[in-house]
Each structure stands twice: as structure tokens, then as C-alpha cells.
Amino acid sequence: MSTDLLQRGKQIKLAVFDVDGVLTDGRLYFLEDGSEFKTFSTLDGQGIKMLMAAGVQTAIISGRKTPVVERRAKNLGIPHLYQGREDKLVVLDELLAQLNLSYEQVAYLGDDLPDLPVIRRVGLGMAVANAASFVREHAHGITHARGGEGAAREFCELILRAQGRLDAANAAYL
Fold first, then answer.
1. Cα(83)–Cα(145) distance, rounded to whole angstroms?
2. What is the per-residue burial (b if ≥16 Cβ within 10 Å, else e) of 115-134?
3. Which residue(s) pair with 82 in the sheet?
4. pLDDT digits (tens, 9 = 90+) for 85-144
5. Which segments of 13-150 does DSSP mark as H helices, in order?
6. What is the average pLDDT across 150-169?
7. Domains of the chain by range and CATH?
8. CB atoms within 10 A of CB 86
9. Which of 94, 79, 89 is nearest to 125 (CA)?
10. Phi-psi region of 42 (alpha: psi -120 to 50; beta: other; left: phi over 0)
11. Which helix (H) or strand (E) segment is 57 a member of?
12. How far apart are alpha carbons 58 and 56 in whole angstroms?
């Protein structure tokens, strides 16, 4: 893990996640009745819970809107959920004003072009391993794991490690 990423991670007070391709594998599953379903990693969910337990606020910003994401956010206790919002930077500006935070205090994990303006603006902007190549080129860091397969957990643990809280977060389960 680079010194730069750890330095950036020290200041983080808010971690923001995209959904499709980040918290999921990016595939869209539609049933014949028109409903859709998504699969989420329990490893990612545990990482998000550990981050929140350490005092880092969390949010989801997704360009698509689906009840499945609302249910997942509720199950994890993620307090800030924005769906159906294509301009993610505008949403982030609203959230930062509400929470009285600066861009430098935000970490964002994304995978595709709509995430790029936020990735480039925040203190720690990261891409998942299978993100679009142009997005990976402009991110501060890239996870080893693919979206929906532990990338969010890796991102959360990086922040916890940077803030000296990972050992305590893990020790809580011993």
C-alpha cells in the first residue's frame, strides 16, 4: 500500500460508494416480470460496518434507482442514500454542505465514467480493479479486488489502516 494512499486516508471522515460495478459485479439481472435483483458481497458489507463503527460516515450515490439498493443500504445502516442521480458531483456537494465537510475529507470508490468527476475531486478517489481503464488512469489508487468481490472491503480497510484503526476493528472479533 502506497504512502500516498495512507496519507490521503488519514483525513477521511466520509466514504462514498457507487453501486453497480462497485458494491455489485456490475451485471444487471432482470426477471420476466420486470423486477431486478443484484448480488452483494458480505465481505464488503462487513467492511462498511467496521468503517462506520470507527466513526467514518458512509453514503451511496448511484445513477440507477432500485428498491434492492435501498434495502441493502438500510440493512447496513448507511444513512445517506442517493439513487437515480447521474451527476454525482452535484449530489456530493449537497451532502458535504449538509455534513459540513470538505472534499479532502471524502473517499470515493467507483468504476465508470459517471464516477470520474468525484474520483478526481475528493481526497481519496479510488477505482475497483475492473473499472474502465480511463477511470483507473485518473484514480489515486486501484483495488486489487474486483467490484462486488471484496473491493469495497479493501477500500474500507485501507481507510481504517491509514487512521490506525484496523487492528482495533479486527480485534473486536477476537
1. 24
2. bbbbbebbbbbbbbbbbbee
3. 61
4. 999 999 999 999 999 999 999 999 999 999 999 999 999 999 999 999 999 999 999 999
5. 42-53, 67-76, 88-99, 116-121, 133-138
6. 97
7. 3-166 (3.40.50.1000)
8. 11
9. 89
10. alpha
11. strand 57-61
12. 7
DSSP symbol at 170: H
**What does the alpha-carbon distance between residue 83 and residue 159 come to, in Å, rounded to a whole number?**
24
Return the bridge partners of 15, or none: 58, 107
Residue 1, pLDDT > 80, answer: no
- Report pLDDT for 36: 86
Task: State the angle between helix axes of 151-162 and 42-53 in degrees (0 to 180), rounded to the nearest 10.
Answer: 20
Q: What is the pLDDT of residue 153?
A: 98
b (16+ CB within 10 A) / e for 44-64: bbbbbbbbbebebbbbbbbbe
In which element (H, E) is residue 29 found?
Answer: strand 29-30
Task: Tell me what the pLDDT averaged over the chain comes to.
Answer: 96
Residues 121, 110: contact at Cβ < 8 Å?
no
